[in-house]
Predict the structure.
Amino acid sequence: MKAHWENLRSELDQIKSKDLYRECKEFEGLDFCSNDYLGLARSKVLRDALALSITDNTTGSTASRLVKGHRKGMEDFETKFAEFVESESSLLVSTGYVANMGLLDTIADSQTYIFTDRLNHASILDGIRISRANKKYYNHLDLDHLESQLAKAVSEQSSARKKRIIVSETLFSMDGDVPNIKRLIEIKRKYDCILVLDEAHSFGVFGREGRGMIFESLTASEVSEIEYRVYTLGKSLGLEGGIIATSKIGREYLINRMRAFIFSTAPLPIISITALSALKLVQEAEKQRAHLKEISKCFRDGMIQAGFQIAPSTTHIIPVLMPSEAISLQYSKLLSEFGFDIRAIRPPTVPTSRLRVSLNALITMSEIESLLGAFKKIREKISD
Ligand SMILES: Cc1ncc(COP(=O)(O)O)c(C=O)c1O
């Protein structure tokens, strides 16, 4: 249908005219943009483990977990992962996106109220949308606002038995900031809510042996109060996949009811086998975590001293806020000429344009200093 393509062309032209056009570009230069926070995706040990993991007699898993796709290696990884994050059990799925989207679709329905931080990841927002739950946004990190939304909902919901879910990232992927997790626990208790926390960007970097952000502030008993935690294998673990940590009954229910799990081919068997090695490497990466914290502080301090506006990040994700889409694209291009791969993140992914600088443990202190120098030179060039 000709009109369809013409309409798409005209919409794409509009996107271009607003400097919001996106295209896939292969990485080039020093990695300051990936989520390979510990450098595991580039580690020889993990690449060797991946090569050795081809013990299965098929390449693909060839069916869903409930048909022929299931392998013992998947359950072995789930058991080890659950032990590591101090959860009763866990369930492996194909990506973190599928984990969030499928989980929320499964545990919520049109009678459910879901309270979501305004800046939660698209996979969370899409899960809420598909579930048809009643979505209540609260302002980013504003738990007073969350409480006032909850108090209103409690009086609105006709019966006390109606389901309420709070969902938040524990380290916001595009802002690098962190919610008050202890208070989230108190609020979920007070208003009798199910709590879903997404540990995608903190796993491997924060908490004892990289267990994640919740282990920075919660006691074991508080951790056990969180009904669902979502992780991805695609960031610090250097692979791909998603995993939901929950109770035994939670896992059993998801296996029976989660459409995104039931109706999709199981992950490649090599993923779960290699993931066991990746988990061990994460645990042992104490030096990498310490180094990452050191370079993050140095970069944050350096940018503030130089007068750049950075988001109030306390982590290794340090967004540099830009006055416009065009200027963020210009910085990204010029930074690549200096040898740095840093991408411009623009609306609608984020409310305002920024360069998402995400640091990893393979970056040296002298590369941080060169990057600070490059930012200053680019600013001079642009303002000329
Ligand atoms: C907070 C958060 N959750 C979930 C995901 C999805 O994970 P995956 O990339 O494994 O699909 C992402 C991806 O960037 C994310 O930032």
